[in-house]
């Protein structure tokens, strides 16, 4: 999204869903985005970069009061949380691959 569209998005959310708008984190830095890209060994799409340069996700619901604007328990994850969940999932997959009969889940030579 261009800054014009983000300005419009923010204005609409702030007007019609102020508690959701209040949950948005401050922007992520270029340094943080670059660190995530290095960790994942990829370049994020430009639209994703722009989104995180606008807001680094949103705070956990436990930290603020908010109507359920998204599906229950869903929210915009911060970059730190994206990396955390990705790491946890990679570790889980590695554990599953080491288990007996893991070939039922992961065919041989499938990385």
Per-chain topology:
Layout: H1 3-16, H2 18-23, H3 30-40, H4 46-54, H5 79-98
Structural features, described:
The chain has helices at residues 3-16, 18-23, 30-40, 46-54, 79-98. 54% of the residues lie in helices and 0% in strands. It has five helices and no strands. By secondary structure, the protein is mostly helical. The model has no long low-confidence stretch (mean pLDDT 84).
Structural key phrases:
mainly alpha, 111 residues
Number of strands: 0
Query: Rg from C-alpha positions?
Result: 18 Å
Q: What's the story with the biggest beta sheet? A: none
- Count up the helices: 5
**End-to-end Cα distance:** 34 Å
- Derived structural class: mainly alpha
Low-confidence stretches: none
Q: How much of the residues is beta strand, in percent?
A: under 5%
Query: Element order, helices and strands?
Result: HHHHH
Shape: elongated
Q: What is the average of the pLDDT values? A: 84
Share of helix among residues?
A: 40-55%
In short:
The chain has 111 residues and is mostly helical. Helices cover 54% and strands 0% of the residues.
